[in-house]
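User: We ran a pulldown and think these components assemble together. Before we commit to crystallization trials, I'd like a predicted model of the whole complex to look at. Sequences follow.
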Amino acid sequence: MSSRESILSKIKASQPEQRALPGLTGLNLQVDSVFQKYREVLTSIGGTVVEVRSFDEIKAFIKSEYNTSLRLITTLPELADIAETGWLEADPHSLSDVELTIIRGVFGVAENGAIWLTENEMGQRVAPFICQNLAIIIQKENIVADLHLAYERIGNEENSFSTFLAGPSKTADIEQSLVLGAHGSRSLVVFVL
Amino acid sequence: MQHSEAADIFNKDVERTTWHDETLWWVRQKRDKVAFQIPEWELLRETASQIKNNVLSNLHDYLVSFEEQAIRNGVKVHWAADAAEHNQIVLSILRENNINSLSKSKSMLTEECHMNEFLSHNGIDVIDTDLGERIVQLRQEPPSHIVMPAIHLKKEDVSDTFHEHLNTEKGNNAPQYLTEVARHHLREKFLERKLALTGVNFAVAETGEFVVCTNEGNADMGAHLADVHIACMGFEKIIPKREHLGVFLRLLARSATGQPITTYSSHFRKPCEGQQMHIVIVDNGRSTQLGRKDFRNSLKCIRCAACMNTCPVYRRSGGHSYHNAVAGPIGSILAPNLDMTKFADLPFASTLCGSCSNVCPVKIDIHDQLYKWRQVLVQSGHAPTVKKLGMKAMNFTFSHPAAYQLGGSVGRKIMKALPFLVNNGMNPWFKNREMPEPPSESFRDWYKKNRKK
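Assistant: Here's a predicted model for the assembly, 646 residues in total across the polymer chains.
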């Protein structure tokens, strides 16, 4: 008998009597303003929210806040004049010198500051992780209050890879001192359009 | 070494023990702060507990469904009955691909299986990429905590270790500086390693996807830059549906570190084009635990470590004292299942105060299980001789009133006349405590006297 068969038969013989799945009602977080809550939570975990009205404002912010002589990449044609767009098919290792990645996010989650990203938005799986800094653009109306609503919204989508990304990469493994920029991006700016 | 002996050694450094105690309590307080911000917190815990009860009763079907979906997604699924088979599977994937080094992100399962040791004996170079795990790996120590692997160390220790292995400035203890050096050191490894191994936080039966949570981004850096990704999971990581992730991801980081969510909660479903993705599903004693009615609830654990952070014994004895991959209260109910002789001491390393059960996000009855393990271990002859003799003496005394009265009266007299006979290091009660003033008479004597009045 293979390990698969022996494990499964042992489990079948040992598992307890049937217990029903609970419903997921009554779990939602009541939030007055999802945008205010989102801003408050993201700020508390080390991210920055920047409200903008147009792509021109995004470009102006990037030019003033980042070193544009270094490598900037984006998936957005609107930003092609300030960042590279031809990297989607490149070897992921070649992105190791990226200073700033600018991508779209699908939606934000107010209760934890996370943004839902799928491979479509990322361009390449490693793009939001390997860069020194990360900027994500979301629409103001695309913020949900909590994770239950988030998964309702995701539904049965078949994404090969997706992630909830909340703030810059961090660690507190040395004496519980918080340090931003462990292995992923050192900073996160969320542009809210 | 028994937990109590190891704890004695840990406590010799009073300052460090106090620091350890206070730091973990601070993490516990952060957990309270975020939990209390969520009015539906208790309902969330109850819901998570019920989902996990359902999982335990449907494990067979959920695992079959998970496997079916994963295969449909292009993932290769392996089954390992025990630690040795798990390690062999990982080695064979390495060999098939002619790879002799890998980057690993945190996986307590591979600690449980002693995989690093096995692979290095077979000429494979394993790099742990979680900062805390890298620190303890360089020091050739196991992690002392499942979420904060290097919590037993001070920044001076880390600085010394990094100076020795990574050439950092001697005496520069700044966490910012040390983390920056580790970032550069490990980035090189992420870029060169062809195989990445990660753990699994949740595996969804309905979709075949699995979720890996990190704050550092090490699981993603490893997996997305490698040609081969192996994800190892104990079979209890299964949850029924994707929507249930909402419940568990809300609880996990809040219970663990007081964060609203980990920085990255990555959902892996299909390999990248040209990449291989493997999942190793491991039993290693879990199906035995599933059959133990009193202890199967321990398989509901989501490895948040809230029970450790709150435990007065863990906080003052350190994770290494538990001599098991998973320390603390939850480790003490998981370990005896694997080896009753080796881990007979662990269920006794508790005050049974119940704080662990009160903070557990999936409502495992941890302290009840600790109490039940004690009974199982003593009845099956695994208690240490001193404890057995003590229990026998106590049983005799309590069931023979004459012996009880005599013992009490002799004891009171000795404590009065010859206090040094009890106030010494041979008496475990005297450690860190003053013995009480002996009463002049027992309650029984007092009652007899006053009843007559």
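Residues 128 and 237 of chain B are 22 Å apart (CA to CA). That may be worth checking against your pulldown data before setting up trials.

User: Thanks, that helps.
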